[in-house]
């Protein structure tokens, strides 16, 4: 009986020891987890490599650690939000900006490149809110637009070979631009960090403006509000000829002219701002409300008290 008990205990000990060991480099890692203390596994092609251990410590040989700390090798892991591993270099600036914005949002802060969430306004002091202290023309950060969330899915393979399970989605603020994201709305520029706007940091070529995803301009050019006036003048001349015959066969011609009054017409153009609504700006996109401050959004502050039904939907 004692021998049987010892045998069972020893078997469980051996099983537990090997079960808790990490997978070797030649095993399929499935979906791994990662953090600042634990790198992702080596890529499959390097698991039997003859390179030195020191060389294999470099990120380029490892799978990517995604925004949600999952390991993988597709663009969902190695693109925007990749923390370390063989991250794609073309997404480096957007990833840096994503983490910068995240740290601001935790403090209810905002900036030119990090607009407020859920349709709130960014004040000139860099704080988010929905009252007039944040949204009035003189108090608002001029380049911040009303925004809403869009999502970018990140599918993750499960540990079995037959099914896949989706992970939570990364929330990306509307207003991002660039490769695999899209272009800015008409009249806006895509900065080198992948955000839409109209300041010199967004639009100047010397600042890294991306012309393939929005408009760009040279440092010497500027965009200003212009007033255009046109003056039209119409005149009409009528002539009547009267021929008089005399014995000397001379011809006398009399001309009379009439000039109509001048009509002047002056028109002015208002610079269109994305996200703006109301008189002079027009209606919001379908499904959005126009707030009393003249901005489009879908939150309660846009659709309830002060909502302008003429320029978008409103709550009853």
UniProtKB/TrEMBL annotation:
Entry keywords, A to Z: Chitin-binding, Disulfide bond, Signal
Claim: Ribonucleoprotein is one of the keywords in the record: no
Domain Chitin-binding type-1 residue range list: 174-218, 274-316
Any one GO molecular-function label of the UniProt entry: chitin binding
Chain residue ranges for the region called Disordered: 213-232
Cysteines joined through disulfide linkages: 184-196, 189-203, 284-296, 289-303
Signal peptide positions on this chain: 1-19
Pfam family, one: Chitin_bind_1
Residue ranges that the Swiss-Prot or TrEMBL entry lists as coiled coil: none
Keyword Phosphoprotein: no
Protein name: Chitin-binding type-1 domain-containing protein
